[in-house]
Design a protein that fits this description.
The chain is mainly α. The chain has seven helices and no strands. Helix 1 (about 25-45) packs antiparallel against helix 3 (about 65-75), helix 1 (about 25-45) packs parallel to helix 4 (about 80-100) and helix 2 packs antiparallel against helix 6 (about 140-160). The protein is globular.
Length: about 210
């Protein structure tokens, strides 16, 4: 990782050359995913339209990989897109956890475990910024964990919204949820180790200067 966030024209984490472009197809997809977050919360908590909320959540989760794939396919990798994609992922996860905890679809302990990981990462990012580093590139373990969680949540909601599917969907959903949680923490630990190495290197360079 280089110091400071990647500038336009530098290689991006998604495998292309990150530019400063804003109006791109993948960025539009990411914006639509972001808009889906408050829509999902309204349907789940306000209108109690569980089936509609399930559709929004499923679409938001299954399109997790679409924006990155389109960016690479069309050569439209941008720095904004590299920031929007993980932001949309985190907002979907946090919004789903908030809604699910309020509706008692998941226990608060599960929510607390995921939130603790997010707080750990926020602390690591704060330390990195103090030493002039930007956010670390998204790791494939973290992307895998996010994908699994975004598959688990609609499945858990399906178990609540459709009583006839409760047994099968509930078992599948919780299997995915615990698997995703474990990988989420593994990815978090990898980010913290990476941050610690960068901080040690920066301190060593400062001491040698």
């Amino acid at each position: 990782m280089s110091r400071r966030p990647a500038e336009a024209g530098q290689p991006g984490a998604s495998g292309g050359t990150a530019t400063g472009r804003v109006l791109t197809v993948p960025n539009l997809i990411s914006f639509l995913r972001l808009i889906g977050v408050p829509v999902f919360l309204y349907l789940l908590l306000g209108a109690h339209a569980d089936v509609a909320a399930l559709v929004v959540l499923a679409v938001g989760g299954t399109t997790d990989w679409v924006d990155g794939w389109v960016a690479r396919r069309l050569g439209q990798v941008s720095r904004l897109g590299e920031l929007l994609d993980p932001l949309a992922d985190r907002l979907y996860i946090l919004a789903t956890l908030a809604g699910f905890t309020a509706r008692e679809v998941v226990p608060w302990q599960f929510t607390a475990a995921l939130l603790a990981r997010e707080l750990l990462l926020l602390g690591s990012l704060g330390v990195l910024r103090r030493f002039g580093y930007g956010p670390p590139p998204v790791h494939y373990v973290g992307k895998t964990a996010t994908f699994i969680l975004l598959a688990a949540f609609p499945t858990l909601l399906l178990a609540t919204a459709v009583p006839g599917a409760a047994d099968v969907a509930g078992a599948l959903g919780w299997g995915l949820a615990w698997w995703g949680l474990a990988l989420y923490w593994v990815a978090g630990a990898m980010y913290v180790i990476q941050a610690a190495r960068l901080v040690r290197a920066a301190r060593g360079a400062g001491a040698a200067a």
